[in-house]
Amino acid sequence: MSPARVEIVKKAYEKLDVNKDGQVKLDDIAKAFDASNMKDVLMGKRSEQDVYMEYMSLWDTQVKDGIITFDEFLAYYADISCSIDDDDEFVQKMAEAWKL
After folding, report:
1. What is the per-residue pLDDT across 18-34, written as a single tens digit (0 to 9) for each?
2. d(Cα 17, Cα 47) in Å, to the nearest integer?
3. Exposed e or buried b per residue across 26-62, where buried means at least 16 C-beta atoms within 10 angstroms of its C-beta
4. CA atoms lying within 13 Å on the CB side of residue 22
5. Full pLDDT tens readout for the chain, 100 residues
6. Is the pTM of this model over 0.90?
7. Is 10 helix (H, G, I), strand (E, B) or coil?
8. Which residues are registered as beta bridge partners of 25?
9. In angstroms, rounded to a whole number, what is the distance separating the alpha carbons of residues 42 and 63?
């Protein structure tokens, strides 16, 4: 990932780190996630609950302890990053998703 992409991911992680202890809990991500505006939900293809459960299963992948490390967070967005060619577009999507 480019430095610009890593920086915006870091900003999102820091926003989620409500205690400023360098750890994001799965609950913190859950509180910030809103499935109501997801494409499949808006089209009536899936329920908010289904989208929410799928999204939450993507986190806490390295050690199942309810804590999302920065490395786990970055790895998730590294995978997403591959599908977005333009740095500016990636940064914009991150800023919108996490209200940065």
Report:
1. 888 888 888 888 788 77
2. 28
3. eebbeeeeebeebeebeeeebeeeebbeeeeeebbee
4. 1
5. 999 999 999 999 999 998 888 888 888 887 887 778 777 888 999 998 888 888 777 776 666 777 888 988 999 899 989 999 999 999 998 888 788 8
6. no
7. helix
8. 67
9. 33
CA–CA gap between residue 86 and residue 15 (Å, rounded): 23
3-state secondary structure 34-96: CHHHCHHHHCCCCCHHHHHHHHHHCCCCCCCCCEECHHHHHHHHHHHHCCCCCHHHHHHHHHH
- The answer to whether the CB of 14 falls within 8 A of the CB of 96 is no
Torsions phi, psi of 68, nearest 5? -100, 115
